[in-house]
What does this fold into?
Amino acid sequence: MTANSIGKAFVVTTFGESHGRCVGAVIDGCPAGLPLSEKEVQAELDKRIPKKPEITSGRIEKDIVEILSGTFEGHTTGAPICMLVWNKEAVPSEYDIIKNLPRPGHADYTAYVKYGGFNDYRGGGRFSGRITASFVMAGAVAKKLLRLFGVEVLAYTKAIGGIEMKETPTLEKIREETYKNPVRCPDPVCAEAIEKAIVEARKEGDSLGGIVECIALNVPAGVGEPVFDALDADIAKAIFAVPAVKGVEFGAGFKAATMKGSENNDPYVISDDKVVTLTNNAGGVLGGLSNGMPVVVRVAIKPTPSIAKKQKTVNLAEFKEAILQVKGRHDPCIVPKAIPAIESMVAIVLADHMIRAGIIPRILVGKGNVGKNK
Ligand SMILES: Cc1cc2nc3c(=O)[nH]c(=O)nc-3n(C[C@H](O)[C@H](O)[C@H](O)COP(=O)(O)O)c2cc1C
It folds into this structure.
Protein backbone atom coordinates (compact mmCIF):
# COMPACT_ATOMS: atom_id res chain seq x y z
CA MET A 1 0.00 0.00 0.00
CA THR A 2 1.91 3.03 -1.19
CA ALA A 3 -0.91 5.20 -2.42
CA ASN A 4 -2.01 7.21 0.58
CA SER A 5 -0.34 10.45 -0.47
CA ILE A 6 -1.38 13.05 -3.03
CA GLY A 7 0.46 16.09 -4.44
CA LYS A 8 4.03 16.87 -5.43
CA ALA A 9 4.74 20.17 -3.63
CA PHE A 10 1.91 20.25 -1.08
CA VAL A 11 1.95 16.55 -0.23
CA VAL A 12 -0.96 15.22 1.81
CA THR A 13 -0.70 11.75 3.37
CA THR A 14 -3.72 10.40 5.18
CA PHE A 15 -3.97 7.60 7.72
CA GLY A 16 -6.51 5.84 9.91
CA GLU A 17 -9.56 3.62 9.67
CA SER A 18 -13.19 3.81 10.71
CA HIS A 19 -12.71 1.67 13.83
CA GLY A 20 -8.99 2.17 14.46
CA ARG A 21 -7.74 4.64 17.07
CA CYS A 22 -7.82 7.75 14.94
CA VAL A 23 -7.94 9.29 11.48
CA GLY A 24 -5.51 11.98 10.43
CA ALA A 25 -3.37 13.68 7.84
CA VAL A 26 0.23 14.81 7.42
CA ILE A 27 0.93 17.76 5.13
CA ASP A 28 4.50 17.99 3.92
CA GLY A 29 5.33 21.11 1.92
CA CYS A 30 3.00 23.68 3.44
CA PRO A 31 4.76 27.06 3.16
CA ALA A 32 6.17 28.56 6.35
CA GLY A 33 4.45 31.58 7.84
CA LEU A 34 0.80 30.61 7.38
CA PRO A 35 -1.20 31.64 10.46
CA LEU A 36 -2.90 28.41 11.60
CA SER A 37 -4.81 27.32 14.68
CA GLU A 38 -6.78 24.23 15.70
CA LYS A 39 -9.85 26.48 15.90
CA GLU A 40 -9.72 27.15 12.15
CA VAL A 41 -9.33 23.48 11.26
CA GLN A 42 -12.11 22.65 13.72
CA ALA A 43 -14.49 25.06 11.99
CA GLU A 44 -14.06 23.12 8.73
CA LEU A 45 -14.41 19.74 10.48
CA ASP A 46 -17.63 20.87 12.13
CA LYS A 47 -19.16 21.35 8.68
CA ARG A 48 -18.92 17.60 8.01
CA ILE A 49 -21.75 16.32 10.15
CA PRO A 50 -25.26 17.67 9.50
CA LYS A 51 -26.97 18.36 12.82
CA LYS A 52 -30.09 16.38 11.98
CA PRO A 53 -30.14 12.76 13.19
CA GLU A 54 -32.83 11.74 10.67
CA ILE A 55 -30.57 12.26 7.68
CA THR A 56 -27.20 11.17 8.99
CA SER A 57 -25.56 8.09 10.49
CA GLY A 58 -26.21 7.50 14.20
CA ARG A 59 -22.46 7.58 14.75
CA ILE A 60 -21.79 11.14 15.79
CA GLU A 61 -18.12 11.71 16.53
CA LYS A 62 -17.12 14.99 18.18
CA ASP A 63 -13.97 15.06 16.05
CA ILE A 64 -11.88 17.49 18.07
CA VAL A 65 -8.77 18.13 16.00
CA GLU A 66 -5.28 17.99 17.47
CA ILE A 67 -2.39 19.56 15.57
CA LEU A 68 0.63 17.53 16.68
CA SER A 69 3.41 19.19 14.70
CA GLY A 70 4.36 21.78 12.13
CA THR A 71 3.14 24.94 13.86
CA PHE A 72 4.86 27.28 16.32
CA GLU A 73 3.64 30.56 17.77
CA GLY A 74 0.48 30.40 15.65
CA HIS A 75 2.19 29.91 12.28
CA THR A 76 3.22 26.99 10.13
CA THR A 77 6.97 26.40 10.30
CA GLY A 78 7.53 24.60 6.99
CA ALA A 79 7.86 21.27 8.83
CA PRO A 80 5.30 18.47 8.31
CA ILE A 81 1.93 19.28 9.86
CA CYS A 82 0.37 16.24 11.54
CA MET A 83 -3.30 16.51 12.49
CA LEU A 84 -5.72 13.93 13.82
CA VAL A 85 -9.06 13.22 15.46
CA TRP A 86 -9.64 10.25 17.75
CA ASN A 87 -12.31 7.64 17.03
CA LYS A 88 -14.44 7.59 20.16
CA GLU A 89 -17.83 6.30 19.03
CA ALA A 90 -16.83 3.12 17.22
CA VAL A 91 -18.90 -0.02 17.90
CA PRO A 92 -16.97 -2.86 16.23
CA SER A 93 -19.55 -5.58 17.12
CA GLU A 94 -21.98 -3.95 14.65
CA TYR A 95 -19.74 -5.27 11.89
CA ASP A 96 -19.32 -8.92 12.99
CA ILE A 97 -21.91 -9.91 10.39
CA ILE A 98 -19.95 -8.52 7.43
CA LYS A 99 -16.71 -10.30 8.34
CA ASN A 100 -17.53 -13.03 5.83
CA LEU A 101 -20.61 -11.52 4.15
CA PRO A 102 -19.45 -8.62 1.95
CA ARG A 103 -21.93 -5.79 1.55
CA PRO A 104 -23.04 -5.31 -2.05
CA GLY A 105 -21.83 -1.87 -3.22
CA HIS A 106 -19.19 -1.52 -0.49
CA ALA A 107 -15.48 -2.34 -0.69
CA ASP A 108 -15.68 -5.37 1.66
CA TYR A 109 -15.20 -7.98 -1.08
CA THR A 110 -12.54 -6.15 -3.10
CA ALA A 111 -10.54 -5.32 0.06
CA TYR A 112 -10.83 -8.93 1.26
CA VAL A 113 -9.36 -10.15 -2.03
CA LYS A 114 -6.62 -7.52 -2.25
CA TYR A 115 -5.39 -7.86 1.33
CA GLY A 116 -6.00 -11.59 1.74
CA GLY A 117 -8.58 -11.09 4.49
CA PHE A 118 -6.18 -9.07 6.70
CA ASN A 119 -8.07 -5.83 5.98
CA ASP A 120 -9.83 -4.12 8.89
CA TYR A 121 -13.42 -4.63 7.77
CA ARG A 122 -14.96 -2.90 10.82
CA GLY A 123 -17.02 0.00 9.55
CA GLY A 124 -15.41 -0.43 6.14
CA GLY A 125 -11.94 0.19 7.67
CA ARG A 126 -9.80 2.30 5.36
CA PHE A 127 -12.69 2.41 2.86
CA SER A 128 -15.02 4.18 5.26
CA GLY A 129 -16.44 7.64 4.62
CA ARG A 130 -14.79 8.48 7.93
CA ILE A 131 -11.44 8.88 6.18
CA THR A 132 -12.83 12.08 4.70
CA ALA A 133 -12.29 13.69 8.11
CA SER A 134 -8.58 13.62 7.26
CA PHE A 135 -9.30 15.14 3.84
CA VAL A 136 -11.16 17.97 5.56
CA MET A 137 -8.33 18.62 8.06
CA ALA A 138 -5.79 18.91 5.24
CA GLY A 139 -8.31 20.82 3.15
CA ALA A 140 -8.74 23.39 5.92
CA VAL A 141 -5.03 24.24 5.65
CA ALA A 142 -5.14 24.30 1.84
CA LYS A 143 -8.18 26.59 1.87
CA LYS A 144 -6.54 28.97 4.32
CA LEU A 145 -3.45 29.10 2.12
CA LEU A 146 -5.50 29.67 -1.04
CA ARG A 147 -7.53 32.44 0.59
CA LEU A 148 -4.32 34.45 1.06
CA PHE A 149 -4.00 34.38 -2.73
CA GLY A 150 -7.64 35.25 -3.35
CA VAL A 151 -8.82 31.74 -4.27
CA GLU A 152 -12.10 30.49 -2.80
CA VAL A 153 -13.51 26.97 -3.10
CA LEU A 154 -17.26 26.41 -2.64
CA ALA A 155 -19.35 23.26 -2.99
CA TYR A 156 -23.04 22.59 -2.59
CA THR A 157 -25.69 19.95 -3.16
CA LYS A 158 -27.16 20.31 -6.64
CA ALA A 159 -29.43 17.26 -6.56
CA ILE A 160 -30.33 14.30 -4.37
CA GLY A 161 -32.57 11.38 -5.30
CA GLY A 162 -33.44 13.07 -8.61
CA ILE A 163 -34.65 16.26 -6.88
CA GLU A 164 -32.58 18.98 -8.54
CA MET A 165 -32.20 22.72 -8.03
CA LYS A 166 -34.06 24.44 -10.86
CA GLU A 167 -31.82 27.50 -11.10
CA THR A 168 -28.09 27.93 -10.83
CA PRO A 169 -27.51 29.63 -7.47
CA THR A 170 -25.61 32.90 -7.21
CA LEU A 171 -22.28 32.83 -5.40
CA GLU A 172 -23.82 34.85 -2.55
CA LYS A 173 -26.55 32.25 -2.17
CA ILE A 174 -24.05 29.41 -2.11
CA ARG A 175 -21.96 31.19 0.54
CA GLU A 176 -24.91 32.15 2.71
CA GLU A 177 -27.39 29.29 2.41
CA THR A 178 -25.50 26.03 1.83
CA TYR A 179 -24.65 25.21 5.43
CA LYS A 180 -27.92 26.58 6.82
CA ASN A 181 -29.76 23.33 6.12
CA PRO A 182 -28.67 19.73 6.81
CA VAL A 183 -28.68 18.65 3.15
CA ARG A 184 -26.34 21.50 2.12
CA CYS A 185 -28.52 22.76 -0.72
CA PRO A 186 -28.55 26.56 -1.16
CA ASP A 187 -32.19 26.57 -2.31
CA PRO A 188 -34.31 26.26 0.88
CA VAL A 189 -37.38 24.93 -0.97
CA CYS A 190 -35.39 22.28 -2.77
CA ALA A 191 -33.56 21.49 0.49
CA GLU A 192 -36.82 20.74 2.24
CA ALA A 193 -37.99 18.38 -0.52
CA ILE A 194 -34.61 16.62 -0.46
CA GLU A 195 -34.72 16.22 3.32
CA LYS A 196 -38.16 14.58 3.08
CA ALA A 197 -36.93 12.24 0.34
CA ILE A 198 -33.95 11.13 2.45
CA VAL A 199 -36.14 10.46 5.49
CA GLU A 200 -38.54 8.48 3.27
CA ALA A 201 -35.74 6.42 1.71
CA ARG A 202 -34.38 5.56 5.15
CA LYS A 203 -37.85 4.46 6.31
CA GLU A 204 -37.94 2.10 3.33
CA GLY A 205 -34.56 0.67 4.35
CA ASP A 206 -32.99 2.32 1.32
CA SER A 207 -30.60 5.16 0.44
CA LEU A 208 -30.17 7.99 -2.09
CA GLY A 209 -27.36 9.43 -4.19
CA GLY A 210 -26.92 12.84 -5.75
CA ILE A 211 -24.82 15.50 -7.45
CA VAL A 212 -22.41 17.98 -5.89
CA GLU A 213 -21.17 21.07 -7.71
CA CYS A 214 -17.85 22.58 -6.68
CA ILE A 215 -16.57 25.96 -7.87
CA ALA A 216 -13.08 27.39 -7.42
CA LEU A 217 -12.97 31.17 -7.88
CA ASN A 218 -10.05 33.42 -8.85
CA VAL A 219 -7.67 30.64 -9.87
CA PRO A 220 -5.08 32.49 -11.99
CA ALA A 221 -4.71 31.41 -15.64
CA GLY A 222 -1.93 28.97 -16.49
CA VAL A 223 -2.07 26.67 -13.43
CA GLY A 224 -1.59 22.95 -14.18
CA GLU A 225 1.22 20.67 -15.41
CA PRO A 226 0.41 19.02 -18.74
CA VAL A 227 0.39 16.38 -19.82
CA PHE A 228 0.07 13.90 -16.97
CA ASP A 229 -0.54 16.35 -14.13
CA ALA A 230 -3.17 18.34 -15.99
CA LEU A 231 -5.22 20.42 -13.56
CA ASP A 232 -8.51 18.71 -14.45
CA ALA A 233 -6.92 15.24 -14.27
CA ASP A 234 -5.44 15.90 -10.83
CA ILE A 235 -8.69 17.37 -9.52
CA ALA A 236 -10.65 14.38 -10.83
CA LYS A 237 -8.18 11.95 -9.26
CA ALA A 238 -8.38 13.72 -5.91
CA ILE A 239 -12.17 13.77 -5.96
CA PHE A 240 -12.30 10.08 -6.83
CA ALA A 241 -10.51 9.41 -3.53
CA VAL A 242 -13.75 10.42 -1.79
CA PRO A 243 -15.61 7.13 -1.30
CA ALA A 244 -18.86 6.71 -3.28
CA VAL A 245 -17.85 9.12 -6.07
CA LYS A 246 -18.82 7.59 -9.41
CA GLY A 247 -18.41 10.47 -11.86
CA VAL A 248 -16.68 13.81 -12.32
CA GLU A 249 -17.32 16.35 -15.09
CA PHE A 250 -16.00 19.85 -15.79
CA GLY A 251 -18.09 22.69 -17.23
CA ALA A 252 -20.51 21.38 -19.84
CA GLY A 253 -19.03 17.92 -19.18
CA PHE A 254 -20.84 15.03 -20.86
CA LYS A 255 -23.26 17.51 -22.47
CA ALA A 256 -20.36 18.87 -24.57
CA ALA A 257 -20.47 15.60 -26.50
CA THR A 258 -23.88 16.62 -27.87
CA MET A 259 -23.01 20.24 -28.66
CA LYS A 260 -21.62 21.83 -31.81
CA GLY A 261 -18.23 23.57 -31.70
CA SER A 262 -19.99 26.89 -32.17
CA GLU A 263 -22.07 26.21 -29.06
CA ASN A 264 -19.37 24.68 -26.89
CA ASN A 265 -16.49 27.11 -27.56
CA ASP A 266 -16.23 29.87 -24.99
CA PRO A 267 -15.65 33.18 -26.87
CA TYR A 268 -12.91 35.46 -25.50
CA VAL A 269 -13.50 39.09 -24.62
CA ILE A 270 -11.68 41.72 -22.61
CA SER A 271 -13.32 42.85 -19.40
CA ASP A 272 -11.76 45.01 -16.67
CA ASP A 273 -8.41 44.75 -18.45
CA LYS A 274 -8.52 40.96 -18.32
CA VAL A 275 -9.06 38.20 -20.89
CA VAL A 276 -12.26 36.37 -19.95
CA THR A 277 -14.73 34.09 -21.73
CA LEU A 278 -18.40 34.86 -22.31
CA THR A 279 -19.47 31.33 -21.38
CA ASN A 280 -17.73 28.68 -19.28
CA ASN A 281 -18.40 25.35 -20.99
CA ALA A 282 -14.74 24.47 -20.41
CA GLY A 283 -15.28 24.65 -16.65
CA GLY A 284 -12.21 26.85 -16.27
CA VAL A 285 -9.69 24.38 -17.72
CA LEU A 286 -8.24 24.20 -21.25
CA GLY A 287 -5.36 21.91 -22.17
CA GLY A 288 -5.03 20.89 -18.53
CA LEU A 289 -4.36 24.53 -17.55
CA SER A 290 -6.66 26.96 -15.76
CA ASN A 291 -7.93 29.72 -18.04
CA GLY A 292 -8.78 32.24 -15.32
CA MET A 293 -12.51 31.48 -15.32
CA PRO A 294 -14.11 29.68 -12.37
CA VAL A 295 -13.14 26.00 -12.21
CA VAL A 296 -16.50 24.23 -12.17
CA VAL A 297 -16.70 20.51 -11.31
CA ARG A 298 -19.77 18.36 -10.88
CA VAL A 299 -19.54 15.11 -8.92
CA ALA A 300 -21.91 12.13 -9.03
CA ILE A 301 -22.26 10.33 -5.71
CA LYS A 302 -23.90 6.94 -5.52
CA PRO A 303 -26.51 5.92 -2.95
CA THR A 304 -25.07 4.56 0.31
CA PRO A 305 -24.29 0.86 -0.11
CA SER A 306 -25.25 -0.20 3.45
CA ILE A 307 -29.03 -0.39 3.43
CA ALA A 308 -31.47 -2.15 5.75
CA LYS A 309 -33.17 -4.07 2.90
CA LYS A 310 -32.23 -7.72 2.50
CA GLN A 311 -29.66 -8.27 -0.27
CA LYS A 312 -27.99 -11.22 -1.91
CA THR A 313 -24.36 -11.80 -1.11
CA VAL A 314 -21.95 -14.69 -0.61
CA ASN A 315 -20.43 -16.22 2.51
CA LEU A 316 -16.71 -16.03 1.78
CA ALA A 317 -15.74 -18.49 4.55
CA GLU A 318 -18.21 -21.16 3.41
CA PHE A 319 -18.18 -20.21 -0.27
CA LYS A 320 -21.94 -20.29 -0.64
CA GLU A 321 -24.67 -17.80 -1.42
CA ALA A 322 -26.28 -15.96 1.47
CA ILE A 323 -28.72 -13.19 2.39
CA LEU A 324 -27.46 -10.11 4.20
CA GLN A 325 -29.38 -7.50 6.13
CA VAL A 326 -26.96 -4.74 7.09
CA LYS A 327 -27.25 -3.44 10.65
CA GLY A 328 -25.33 -0.62 12.26
CA ARG A 329 -25.29 3.12 11.79
CA HIS A 330 -25.24 4.35 8.22
CA ASP A 331 -25.86 7.53 6.31
CA PRO A 332 -29.08 7.26 4.28
CA CYS A 333 -27.39 9.71 1.87
CA ILE A 334 -23.68 10.48 1.61
CA VAL A 335 -23.97 13.74 -0.35
CA PRO A 336 -24.29 16.24 2.55
CA LYS A 337 -21.19 14.88 4.30
CA ALA A 338 -19.27 14.74 1.03
CA ILE A 339 -19.56 18.50 0.41
CA PRO A 340 -16.66 19.62 2.66
CA ALA A 341 -14.61 16.59 1.53
CA ILE A 342 -14.95 17.58 -2.13
CA GLU A 343 -14.18 21.24 -1.38
CA SER A 344 -11.09 20.02 0.47
CA MET A 345 -9.80 17.78 -2.31
CA VAL A 346 -10.15 20.58 -4.86
CA ALA A 347 -8.37 22.99 -2.49
CA ILE A 348 -5.52 20.52 -1.86
CA VAL A 349 -4.90 20.10 -5.61
CA LEU A 350 -5.04 23.86 -6.24
CA ALA A 351 -2.63 24.57 -3.38
CA ASP A 352 -0.24 21.95 -4.75
CA HIS A 353 -0.38 23.33 -8.28
CA MET A 354 -0.11 26.97 -7.24
CA ILE A 355 3.03 26.18 -5.24
CA ARG A 356 4.41 24.25 -8.23
CA ALA A 357 3.64 27.24 -10.47
CA GLY A 358 5.54 29.55 -8.08
CA ILE A 359 2.39 31.60 -7.42
CA ILE A 360 2.42 30.56 -3.77
CA PRO A 361 5.94 31.00 -2.34
CA ARG A 362 7.62 28.64 0.14
CA ILE A 363 7.84 31.38 2.78
CA LEU A 364 4.78 33.58 3.15
CA VAL A 365 6.15 36.46 5.20
CA GLY A 366 9.91 36.72 5.75
CA LYS A 367 10.91 37.22 9.41
CA GLY A 368 14.66 36.73 9.61
CA ASN A 369 17.34 38.84 7.94
CA VAL A 370 19.49 36.22 6.30
CA GLY A 371 21.78 38.88 4.80
CA LYS A 372 23.01 40.01 8.21
CA ASN A 373 23.82 36.45 9.26
CA LYS A 374 26.02 35.72 6.29
C1 LIG B 1 -18.80 11.03 3.93
C2 LIG B 1 -19.11 9.61 3.53
C3 LIG B 1 -19.91 8.82 4.34
C4 LIG B 1 -20.19 7.51 3.98
N1 LIG B 1 -21.03 6.77 4.79
C5 LIG B 1 -21.32 5.50 4.45
C6 LIG B 1 -22.17 4.71 5.28
O1 LIG B 1 -22.66 5.17 6.30
N2 LIG B 1 -22.41 3.44 4.90
C7 LIG B 1 -21.89 2.90 3.74
O2 LIG B 1 -22.16 1.76 3.44
N3 LIG B 1 -21.11 3.63 2.94
C8 LIG B 1 -20.79 4.90 3.25
N4 LIG B 1 -19.97 5.63 2.44
C9 LIG B 1 -19.56 5.08 1.13
C10 LIG B 1 -18.53 3.97 1.18
O3 LIG B 1 -17.42 4.35 1.98
C11 LIG B 1 -18.10 3.61 -0.25
O4 LIG B 1 -19.21 3.41 -1.05
C12 LIG B 1 -17.26 2.33 -0.25
O5 LIG B 1 -16.01 2.59 0.34
C13 LIG B 1 -16.99 1.78 -1.66
O6 LIG B 1 -16.27 2.72 -2.42
P1 LIG B 1 -16.83 3.28 -3.81
O7 LIG B 1 -18.28 3.53 -3.60
O8 LIG B 1 -16.05 4.53 -4.04
O9 LIG B 1 -16.58 2.23 -4.83
C14 LIG B 1 -19.66 6.96 2.79
C15 LIG B 1 -18.84 7.76 1.98
C16 LIG B 1 -18.57 9.08 2.34
C17 LIG B 1 -17.72 9.94 1.46
User: Anything to note?
Assistant: The longest strand covers residues 152-160. The radius of gyration is 22 Å. The chain has a mean pLDDT of 95. The pocket of flavin mononucleotide is lined by residues 57, 106-107, 124, 127-129, 132, 242-245, 302, 304-306, 330-331, 334, 337-338, 341 (CB under 6 Å).
